[in-house]
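Action item from last meeting closed. Structure (214 res):
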């Protein structure tokens, strides 16, 4: 761990947004999942969510650019559990959904705790997930094709959120609580050591100014 690398990790962590996330409902193609995580990393999502009925760990593709190392992914067994988890943490859930009731995605205030729900490649957001979400948002389509690729839709909406959050100054100071920040920094800086300590149930040691284990 060089001091430069340690500074870079801190710079990125300083911009992480614990109250902005995505929920991928049965987005099963590894290249789509990976592309969404890559965008999530770019806008500062701290933890992303996926509903995966098989309960398995989603697989990644090289389109992720390694972003699965920097964005935690929490997998839920079904949409009910995922929505309960997010709403219990104060998130408003916006379903990116091509429905009659959907509002233009730019009308939403993403500076408030926001989760963007994305639907499966073929079927879109399920009726149950749409029913549980707080609102539907749509990216207006002016062409012949009805919908965007799911990872493209995610990028359009997440970068609107980034734009609003930049204007509101939400990237100007660290947003993670100090304990989460400290824990995450250790896991990013020393992933192998962190995994061993976790398995042993031991706490992470502190790091010095230059990122060395004390
Ligand atoms: C390929 S689309 C699914 C199309 C599906 N036939 C449908 O009717 O929803 C995959 C996902 O991308 C998102 N998406 C794609 N285009 C969108 C748009 N114009 N507005 C909002 N979300 C969109 C939605 O979350 C959608 O579930």
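Sequence:
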């Amino acid at each position: 761990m060089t001091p430069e690398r340690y500074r870079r990790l801190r710079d990125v962590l300083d911009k992480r947004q614990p109250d902005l996330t995505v929920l991928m409902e049965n987005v099963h193609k590894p290249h789509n999942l990976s592309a969404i995580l890559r965008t999530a990393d770019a806008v500062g999502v701290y933890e992303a969510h996926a509903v995966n009925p098989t309960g398995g760990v989603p697989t990644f593709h090289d389109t992720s650019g390694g972003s699965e190392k920097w964005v935690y992914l929490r997998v839920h067994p079904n949409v009910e559990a995922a929505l309960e988890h997010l709403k219990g943490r104060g998130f408003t859930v916006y379903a990116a959904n091509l429905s009659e009731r959907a509002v233009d995605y730019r009308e939403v205030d993403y500076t408030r705790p926001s989760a963007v729900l994305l639907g499966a490649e073929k079927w879109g957001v399920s009726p149950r997930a749409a029913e549980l979400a707080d609102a539907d948002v749509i990216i207006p389509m002016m062409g012949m094709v009805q919908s965007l690729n799911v990872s493209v839709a995610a990028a359009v909406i997440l970068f609107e959120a980034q734009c609003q959050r930049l204007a509101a100054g939400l990237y100007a100071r660290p947003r993670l609580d100090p304990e989460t920040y400290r824990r995450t920094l250790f896991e990013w800086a020393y992933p192998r050591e962190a995994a061993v300590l976790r398995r042993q149930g031991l706490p992470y040691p502190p790091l010095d100014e230059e990122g060395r284990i004390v």
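Note appended to the action item: Helices lie at 3-14, 30-43, 79-88, 127-132, 150-167, 178-189, 191-200.
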